[in-house]
From TrEMBL:
Transmembrane residue ranges: 87-108, 120-139
Keywords: Membrane, Transmembrane, Transmembrane helix
Descriptive protein name: GTP-binding protein
Amino acid sequence: MSISNEIVLRPRFKMELNHGNAFVLKTFEEAKSTSKIYKIVRVDDHVFIRLPTHEQQFWSPQLHLEINEIDDKTSTLHGLFGPNPTVWTMFMFLHFLVAGLFIAFGIWTYTNWTLKNTYALPMGLMLFMVVVWFGLYFAGRYGRAKGKEEMHNLYDFMDTTLKTNGLI
């Protein structure tokens, strides 16, 4: 599994499968009952593979698979690694909050500059928002690095499930 872009926080991959999506989805349904290590949830053409709740940590990744049918004999599997959706939503909310505050402090800085008032405080707060944004970015990188082994294990489980059923 190679990642083409180092800056990406949620690695993605894509592969062609030798069977239609109904057969692939059925394979994961069967793996759901036999797997003791991972929790597998299927919703329509989507399969979510994650650790059981009691083994998850804050940054534990999950693997989201979307299986799209090309024709009766082939399908495309799109994979996306990411944290728990609740964690990801909170993480993105914090990014938008920091961006909004940066813009607000920028308006405050410009207003004070135009009115010939001191603008050191709003300018300092703008720079602080940049520091906070970098902190959020590196926290995301840290979380991805911490869950890297679990990501490889999830990928290996998916790969083994597909290979044992002759799908790739």
